[in-house]
């Protein structure tokens, strides 16, 4: 009896082991392959992007002649930042389906009315606009997403709410002057005088109006060029803005194919801003006064190496050192 019972338990154990091996055979526990959520979305066809937050505030970005603009006033947009966002959206994948019920949309904040972000992409190359909702974030690296017109909710990586702000300043192009110093043929600064730098055939800089024997301080010239050729701003003024005062300085840039000017107005230390205007832009911009403070105070002499002082004439007594002592 005991032998028959042990045999039965042994057979049951074998069956259980076989069942476990079948259920957990290779490939059965693996998640389904990740697929593109927006398979028909090609980044180069997108010319409009709108973002709406959970308070109803919307920011509109539009692509005009290969350049992105921000808001109805058409502020210059950060092309790289916006293009990268669209590429991330087009490449979104998800292998995890979180919910298939409409009742979960409000709880996960991906509903038509209750959401954290609503994103709409459109363009002449798209048959229909691509619309989707972003909700809560189950982890630091993932977020819930639902495509408009569908009940399915996915968990995705690659997007976050804090990178999808609706303030226009989040999408501005802040590089207001961006020219390679190596491309400059000349640079003229007019402040309380005029500093005219010209590049000669050898590629060396010369300061107009100085004697041939006076040499430039290359470190000071490099510092000046690095300051005025790469200017990032803190923001733009409105499209109808006009300065009350007169410009206190002008910088003229000349390369092989273009010439443009930057006008500079007096700095306001209380407001911590200074107004500038690039002739290539239709918008006045502002930046912290310290950025161009040294440039505004610069003189020709600051760019020249100091002349070596001639050796001082020694007293006659010093020349006769070692001679007989004077008679007492």
* Gyration radius, in Å: 35 Å
What is the helix content?
A: 10-25%
Taken together, the total number of domains comes to 2
Number of helical runs? 6
Mean pLDDT: 89
**Separation of the first and last Cα atoms:** 144 Å
Outline of the structure:
By secondary structure, the chain is an alpha+beta fold. The chain contains six helices and 21 strands. Helix content is 18%, strand content 30%.
Plain-language structure description:
With 328 residues, the chain is α+β, with helices and mostly antiparallel strands. The chain has two domains: 35-170, no CATH class; 175-303, Dna Ligase, domain 1 (2-Layer Sandwich), CATH 3.30.1490. Helix content is 18%, strand content 30%. It is built from six helices and 21 strands. It has helices spanning 2-23, 79-90, 104-107, 218-229, 293-296, 316-319; strands at residues 35-36, 48-53, 58-64, 67-70, 75-76, 93-94, 97-99, 117-122, 130-134, 142-147, 153-157, 175-178, 184-190, 194-199, 205-207, 230-232, 235-236, 249-255, 259-268, 273-278, 284-287. β2 (48-53) and β3 (58-64) form a beta hairpin. The protein is elongated, with a radius of gyration of 35 Å.
């Amino acid at each position: 009896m005991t032998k028959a019972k042990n045999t039965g338990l042994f057979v049951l154990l074998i069956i259980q082991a076989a069942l476990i091996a079948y259920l957990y055979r290779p490939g059965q526990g693996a998640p389904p392959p990740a697929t593109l959520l927006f398979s028909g979305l090609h980044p180069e066809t997108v010319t409009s992007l709108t973002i709406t937050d959970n308070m109803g505030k919307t920011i509109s970005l539009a692509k005009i002649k290969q350049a992105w603009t921000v808001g109805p006033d058409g502020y210059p947009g950060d092309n790289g930042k916006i293009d990268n966002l669209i590429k991330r959206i087009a490449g979104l994948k998800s292998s995890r389906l979180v919910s298939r019920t409409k009742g979960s949309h409000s709880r996960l904040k991906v509903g038509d009315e209750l959401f954290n972000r609503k994103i709409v992409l459109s363009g002449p190359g798209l048959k229909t606009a691509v619309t989707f909702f972003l909700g809560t974030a189950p982890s630091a690296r993932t977020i819930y997403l639902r495509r408009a017109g569908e009940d399915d909710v996915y968990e995705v990586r690659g997007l976050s709410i804090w990178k999808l702000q609706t303030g226009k300043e989040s999408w501005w192009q802040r590089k207001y002057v961006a020219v390679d110093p190596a491309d400059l043929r000349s640079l003229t600064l007019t402040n309380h005088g005029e500093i005219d730098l010209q590049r000669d055939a050898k590629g060396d800089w010369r300061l107009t109006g100085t004697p041939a024997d006076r040499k430039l301080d290359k470190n000071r010239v490099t510092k000046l060029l690095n300051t005025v050729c790469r200017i990032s701003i803190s923001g733009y003024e409105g499209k109808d803005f006009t300065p009350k005062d007169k410009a206190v300085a002008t910088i003229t840039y000349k390369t092989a194919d273009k010439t443009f000017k930057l006008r500079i107005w007096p700095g306001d230390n209380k407001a911590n801003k200074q107004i500038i205007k690039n002739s290539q832009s239709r918008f006045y911009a502002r930046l912290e006064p310290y950025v161009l403070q040294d440039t505004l105070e610069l003189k020709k002499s600051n760019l020249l190496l100091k002349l070596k002082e001639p050796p001082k004439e020694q007293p006659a007594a010093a020349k006769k050192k070692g001679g007989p002592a004077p008679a007492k």
